[in-house]
Design brief:
By secondary structure, the chain is α/β, with parallel strands linked by helices. It has a single domain, classed as Spore Coat Polysaccharide Biosynthesis Protein SpsA, Chain A (Alpha-Beta Complex). Helix content is about 40%, strand content about 20%. Strands 3-2-1-4-7-6-8-5 form an 8-stranded mixed sheet, sandwiched between helices. β2, α2 and β3 form a beta-alpha-beta unit.
Length: about 240
């Protein structure tokens, strides 16, 4: 893995908490075509094999207060490249992503845009395909891609909108709202996310919970109050993900 800033253009930041089950696959996909110069795993206090897996994969481990907002902010601060890729530990970039990301970064005006990936779920059921279409609609028409779709953004743009705020919930929605729909664009590649939470919670109940939480957020409910509705984090993804 390259260690000098002038030798690479992209840093990947992966927040973790008890992510041993999915982290290895997520990190492995980042090695495609040598685009990522450094991987930063920002851990919020894992007690499983997460840190061992991260170090074995060559990632740099940073510790931060628990919560994706705080962890993502810490990762951005630790990163050394001019482009940053934020990725959840239970999401795996699919083949061909590096070529699309490189093209996105080199396009005219790229530093003023942020890119996201097309969400795919690792579930063959029709309900999963319906949900994928809803996510695509929400992302394109409402300008609301969420964290499990990844985010590719220049450091300059991230800093210009204030970066990730240390929120216990909705840190991704908070950021993309500040970016605005005009500065968000699909990268043209896909990301495979775990459907475990949908299989457990239901393809109807989970999205309804998402919608309810989003409504509370837009109505100005405190983020910590929303987070408490969903209990403590577990198994590599935060329960406060609200089923996303």
């Amino acid at each position: 893995m390259r260690t000098h800033q002038e030798h690479f253009s992209l840093s990947a930041v992966v927040p973790t908490l008890e992510a041993a089950e999915t982290l290895a696959a997520a990190l492995s996909a980042l090695g495609e075509r040598g685009l990522v110069g450094e991987v930063i795993v920002v851990d919020g206090g894992s007690r499983d094999e997460t840190l061992r897996i991260a170090r074995a994969a060559g990632a740099r481990v940073v510790e931060a207060p628990r919560g994706r907002g705080s962890q993502l902010a810490a990762g951005a601060q630790a990163a050394r490249a001019e482009w940053l890729l934020f990725l959840h530990a239970d999401c795996r970039l699919e083949a061909g992503w590096a070529e699309k990301a490189r093209a996105f970064m080199k396009a005219p005006g790229a530093a003023g845009r942020a890119g996201y990936f097309e969400l795919r779920l690792d579930d063959p059921r029709k309900a999963a395909r319906r949900l994928e279409r809803i996510v695509a609609w929400r992302s394109r028409l409402l300008g609301l891609p969420w964290g499990d779709q990844g985010l590719l953004i220049s450091r300059r743009l991230l800093e210009s909108v204030g970066g990730f705020r240390p929120l216990p919930v909705m840190e991704d929605v908070d950021l993309v709202r500040r970016l605005g729909r005009a500065r968000l664009a699909p990268i043209g590649a896909s990301i495979l996310a775990s459907a475990r939470r949908y299989r457990q919670g239901g393809y109807l109940r989970r999205p309804l919970r998402n919608l309810f939480c989003l409504a509370l957020y837009f109505l100005g409910a405190p983020a910590d109050r929303i987070a408490r509705m969903y209990g403590e984090p577990r198994e590599g993804s935060w329960r406060r993900d609200l089923g996303r």
